[in-house]
Every structure is written in C-alpha cells, then in structure tokens.
Amino acid sequence: MDKKIVMPGEKIADSRIRAPNTFYEGEATFATVIGTLDETGRYIPLENPYKPQVGDFVVGMVVDVRHAGYEVDLNLPKGGFIPSRDIRVNLQLGDYVVCKIKLVSEVGDVDLGEVKRLPMGKIVKFPPAKVPRLIGRKSSMVALLKENAGGDIMVGNNGYVWISEKSNMPLLLKAINMIDVKAHTSGLTDEMAKFLESSR
Amino acid sequence: MGGSTDVQLIVDGKRVDGRTPDEMRKVRMEAGIIPEADGSSFVEWGGNKILCGVYGPRECIPRHGANPYRATIKCRYMMSPFASAEEHGRSGPSRRSTELSKVIREVFENLVVAEKFPNTQIDIFIDVLQAEGGTRTASVTAAAIALVNAGIPMKDMVSAIALGKAADVLLVDLGKAEDNYGQSDVPLAMSHKDKKLHLIQMDGLLTKDEIAKMIDMAEKASDQLHEEQVAALRRFYENGGNESFKW
C-alpha cells in the first residue's frame, strides 16, 4: 500500500475525523505529529511520547524504594507506583519489573498492579509509537523473536523492551533496531523471519 | 546600522558573497543525529552550523516552574566560544544569548500543543558551532526539525529567515557583513500552513511598504526552507533512522 509521510500542520482529511494527535480547523482535520497517511486515510504517528492507559503492560526499573511501595521508571515524566501491600516479593533498587497499569490519575500519576519481577537482563529503549510493530499481530513478532533468540523478551507498551541475559543479545538488538528502522513498511514479520533465518 | 556606510555591500547587483538580492545561502539539514536525545537536528546554513537537541516531555525541574495546565517549554541558545571570528568569550549565558533563548522559546510556546503534557517541561538545546550571521533564524529552523523528530505535537511547522536592506536594496538571508554594516536587519519566523509570523524583530529603519515587501519575500523563502525541513525528516524516516546519517 502506498503511504505518505505527513508533517505537523498538514491536512489529513477534509472532514472531521476522530483520531489521536490531530486537530480541527473549520471542517478539516490536521496532523500534529509526524506520521504516515495511507490511501484509506488512516493516519498513524511515527513518533510520539508514551501516553499511559489503564490496562497497558509496561516494563520498567525500580528507581526508589519507599515505605509504602516502589517507584518505577516508565519512560514517563513521572515514575509509576507499586504499593507494597499489593505484592508479596520484596523488590530492590534496580530490579526490572513488568506490570499492568491499574490507574492513571488526572495529574498523570500511574498506579501499577500485577507485578512480575524480571530476571537478569537488559532494558533497551524503543520508540513507543512503533511498539505495535514490535509486538506484531497477535504477538507474532515477539513469538518469532523469542523462538530465534533462545531467550525471553518482554515488550512494554511504554517503549521499554526487556531482553533476557540468556538470549542471543546481539542478534535481538539487531532485530529490534531493524524493526525501528523499517516500522513504516509492510510485510515486516516475513522480512524478520528471513533475517533471523539467514543470521542463524 | 541605520545610517550611511563606507562598506560597499552591493556591486553590479551582486552581494558581497556573489548572491543576487533574493538568493538564499546554501542550506543543508539533517534530522535525528543525536541518538540519545528524544529529537535532534543539525543545520548547516551558509557558514552557520547549528546543532539542536530536544528532550521531553520530562519532569519539570525546579518543581515550582511546573504549570498544571500545560508543559513548560525551556530553550537554551548557546554560541560556542569558537563560533565566530569575533570574541564570544566564555560560553556562559550572556545578554545576547538570553534574549535569543527567549525569542526562540516564544516561537515554540505558540506552536507546541503544550496542554497535552501538564506539569512537565520540554527542553530545547541549541548550540551554535559556527556563526556567520542569522543564527537565530537558523536556530528556529533547526529546533522545528528536532521537535518533530521528538514526536512533540505541534500545530504547524515553522522556519525563520532574516531579511534586510543594504544600499537601499531589500535582501533575503543576510550574511555577516550585511548584518553588521547594512541599513536594516529583520529576522522573522513564519509558520508554513497559516503563514503567521511568530517572531519579528527589527534593527535599523524601514518604511511600511518595505516591511510589507519583506514579508512577501519571506513567504517565498520560508516555503523553500520548509521543503528542506520536510526533506530532512523524510530522509530520516524513510531510510531508517540514524544509520542514514553518513558523512
């Protein structure tokens, strides 16, 4: 499908369309961030800061241990909070965790639940707007990466990706970078399968 | 500035660097050249070299600077000590750089959709590595690319250009000599979609008609600049990020 890259302030439709990162002027809709516009008029941002939503799975690092709970760096202006009464394990400073967003308050405070501590590994940053491509349809891309890297990988909606130390890290980092670079192209999963096949 | 001068700025309809009055200097732009920053750009504009990095939205420091209704935009323009032939001294804040930081910040305060990120700050860092007249306009142009690269929502793209007058001829894109010895200097920033002026300053004297003419000339020049900005961003996103940045 033919895709066009649109800039902030560029018109994406002559009618009012409800889509994130747009604004109206008269009866027309305009983009506010750089994105792609396909023939059907679907506008997908290429770059966007992460906006927390209830139900999102996020990956982060414990940056503060307090009496009432833990603060987690989530690639947001403010850290997320895990109340210690909700969890049984004791977390330590620098632990990697994956959790679900339970609540986002009016001022942007994020409360986390369903906490799982992640074993030794590494967190890499990935553009949040491109996370859907890294997960793939029904997690196809993540499944593919797991299968070929020999270790676990956890993708947070916030753009943090945890990679297990047991996996083939150089290969995974290369693969993740490739998804970042080619996020706007179609047929990415097939291409990735080929890439992983050839580098085995 | 303003009065008559001994310096011959226009000879046979050509300017000191051989350009015609409505010709711009050569411009080269790149997006995303600082991988650690959320957004970045590099602009080479004649003899100007400008590096810009954007961070945020992130936690507002100091806390009392936070606004519960919108993001606080902070801009730091800095000219390197080695940026030009003249002495720029130590690279601390000066009267000049404080002013430029303010005017550049105000351009983006009107364009960024800051209501989306309450209680946060967006940092724009602009470093002038080499200067040859018109760094504030090149800085605005560079910062616009970096902000788009950072994915910060904006209502419009913006680019800036300096116009002026020397030997009673209106000039587009003033160089250093024209800036220093010309009759007038008008840097202005214009948004692309609405053609609104977000920055206009004036040094020297001009008539109303001349200002009107200048704004028309600026419109043409800013269209050209916008094309370059878009081309830089397209290159970045189509060829795949930082790997495309090869010297």
Topology:
The complex is a heterodimer of chains A (200) and B (247).
Chain A: E1 3-6, E2 11-13, E3 22-25, E4 28-31, E5 35-38, E6 43-45, E7 57-65, E8 69-73, E9 80-83, E10 96-104, E11 110-118, E12 121-125, H1 131-135, H2 140-149, E13 153-155, E14 160-164, H3 169-181, H4 188-198
Parallel strand pairs in A: 9-11
Antiparallel strand pairs in A: 1-5, 2-4, 3-4, 5-6, 7-8, 7-10, 8-9, 10-11, 12-14, 13-14
Helix pairs in contact in A: 2-4, 3-4
Chain B: E1 10-11, E2 14-15, E3 27-31, E4 39-45, E5 48-59, E6 72-79, H1 95-109, E7 120-130, H2 135-149, E8 158-166, E9 169-172, H3 176-181, E10 184-191, E11 197-200, E12 203-204, H4 208-238
Parallel strand pairs in B: 6-7
Antiparallel strand pairs in B: 1-2, 3-4, 4-5, 5-7, 8-9, 8-10, 10-11, 10-12
Helix pairs in contact in B: 1-2, 2-4
Q: Architecture of chain B, according to CATH?
A: 2-Layer Sandwich
The interface involving the most residues is between: A-B, 27 and 34 residues
Shape of chain A: flat
Helical fraction of chain B equals 25-40%
Main pleated sheet of chain B: 5 strands, mixed
Strands side by side in the biggest sheet of chain B: 3-4-5-7-6
Q: How far is the first residue's CA from the last residue's CA of chain B?
A: 39 Å
> What's the alpha carbon Rg of chain A, rounded to whole Å?
19 Å
CATH superfamily of chain B: GHMP Kinase, N-terminal domain
Order of helices and strands of chain A: EEEEEEEEEEEEHHEEHH
Whole-number count of domains of chain B: 1
What percent of residues of chain B are in strands?
25-35%
Q: Are there runs of chain A of 5+ residues with pLDDT below 50, and where?
A: none
Biggest β-sheet description of chain A: 5 strands, mixed, barrel
Structural class label of chain A: alpha+beta
Write down the CATH topology of the largest domain in chain A. Ribosomal Protein S8, Chain: A, domain 1
How many DSSP E strands of chain A?
A: 14
What helical percentage do the residues of chain A reach? 10-25%
Number of helices in the DSSP assignment of chain A = 4
Number of strands of chain B: 12
Rg of chain B, nearest Å: 18 Å
